[in-house]
Amino acid sequence: MDWWRATFPDRKWSDHELYTMIVGIAVLAKGNLTAGGAAGLKATLADVETRWVKSIETCRAKPEKRFADVMQPEGRAIDALSKASR
After folding, report:
1. What does the angle CA 75 – CA 76 – CA 81 come to, to the nearest 5 degrees?
2. Which pTM value belongs to this model?
3. What is the pLDDT of residues 66-75, one digit of tens each?
4. Given its phi and psi angles, is residue 14 left (phi above 0), alpha (psi -120 to 50 degrees) or beta?
5. Distance (Å, whole) CA 25 – CA 59
6. pLDDT at 53 over 90
7. Residue 68 class from Cβ within 10 Å (0-12 exposed, 13-18 middle, 19+ buried)?
């Protein structure tokens, strides 16, 4: 993520495909498309943003950690999708 941010300093996290996928997983998991309405969706987006930045900081401090292991619960879905595509 440090490379991405350095290479694309003017872009938002929402321009990053992994971020977009994680937001989609979070929204689907919480049912924000049908329940919770706009307020629920807004809360989910804010929660993902906070956990995304914290996960990047954790991985930077502990580079042996996998992002999918740190960004939870979405990381479990990332691993499941990866296994399903093999």
Report:
1. 95
2. 0.83
3. 999 999 999 9
4. alpha
5. 20
6. yes
7. middle
Distance of CA 61 to the CA centre of its chain: 18
| Burial zone of 18 (CB within 10 Å; 0-12 exposed, 13-18 middle, 19+ buried) | middle
Tokens of 63: 């580079």
- Distance CA(67)–CA(8), nearest Å, equals 20
Q: How far apart are CA 61 and CA 65, in angstroms?
A: 9
Query: Is 33 a residue whose pLDDT tops 70?
Result: no
Q: Per-residue pLDDT averaged across 29-48, rounded?
A: 81
On the question of pLDDT at 8 being above 70, the answer is yes
